[in-house]
Structure formats: C-alpha cells, structure tokens
Amino acid sequence: MSDLELTCPVCGETSLVLAEDLLEVEEGAVLECEVCGAYLEVVSLDPLEVEVVEEGLEGFFVDCPRCGYTFELEEGEEEATCPECGFTFTPDWSEVEEEDEEW
C-alpha cells in the first residue's frame, strides 16, 4: 500500500495520508483536516472516501491522549473511554468553554 493524497471537502486543500497510517484507518473513523480542522468521517476504504462530520449536532470530538484516536462525546462528560484502546481519561473542556465565552 502506498501513501494517498486526501482532498478536504471543506477547504479543498490536499493532505498526505501515509501508508502506515492507512493500515490503522477503518470505516467510521474520524480524521481531522490538517489545514482547516474539519472533522471527516471515513465512509469507504477502497477507494478512501470521507464525508464532513456535522459539528454540534450531538457532541464534541476529543482525541485520546494515549493513542490519538478521535471520537465523539457529549459536552460535559466527566470521564471518557477510548473505543480504540480502552484508555479512560478526563476530557479537557476548558477550550470549549473559552470558545463559548468568545461568542
């Protein structure tokens, strides 16, 4: 398997997805655009296709501090368990609260 270029449907910029990272990607995984920060759900692996994940409908996305897997939580949950590696951690909601105060 070789590296792939992935074009973000939000900003139109192209990012390189390394072959070793592709081995760990599965359908339903959420990737983040390196340029604009949009969350993209993998809907197909062959060929690699993504769709924009609508933000704010149900929750917020967090990254597991152990494995880096991105998954969705409802705001304010006090504890999160990564569905990828099983690590349990306390999400940092301070960034969300700061964004809310700016509006």
Verbal overview:
With 103 residues, the protein is mainly β. The protein contains two helices and nine strands; from the N terminus they run E-E-H-E-E-E-E-E-E-E-H. The chain has helices at 19-22, 94-102, and strands at 4-7, 14-17, 30-32, 39-45, 48-52, 60-63, 70-73, 80-81, 88-89. The strands form four sheets. A three-stranded antiparallel β-sheet has the order 3-4-5, with no helix packed on it. Strands 1-2 form a two-stranded antiparallel ribbon. Strands 6-7 form a two-stranded antiparallel ribbon. The protein is globular, with a radius of gyration of 15 Å. The N and C termini lie far apart (45 Å).
The count of strands amounts to 9
Strand composition percent: 25-35%
Please state the CA-atom Rg, rounded to the nearest Å. Answer: 15 Å
How far is it from the N-terminal to the C-terminal residue, by CA? 45 Å
Strand order, sheet with most strands: 3-4-5
Listing every helix as H and every strand as E from the N terminus to the C terminus, the arrangement reads: EEHEEEEEEEH
**Overall residue-averaged pLDDT value:** 79
User: Low-confidence spans: pLDDT under 50, at least 5 residues?
Assistant: 97-103
**Proportion of helical residues:** 10-25%
Largest sheet: 3 strands, antiparallel
The tally of helices reads 2
Structural class: mainly beta
What overall geometry do the principal axes of the alpha carbons give? globular
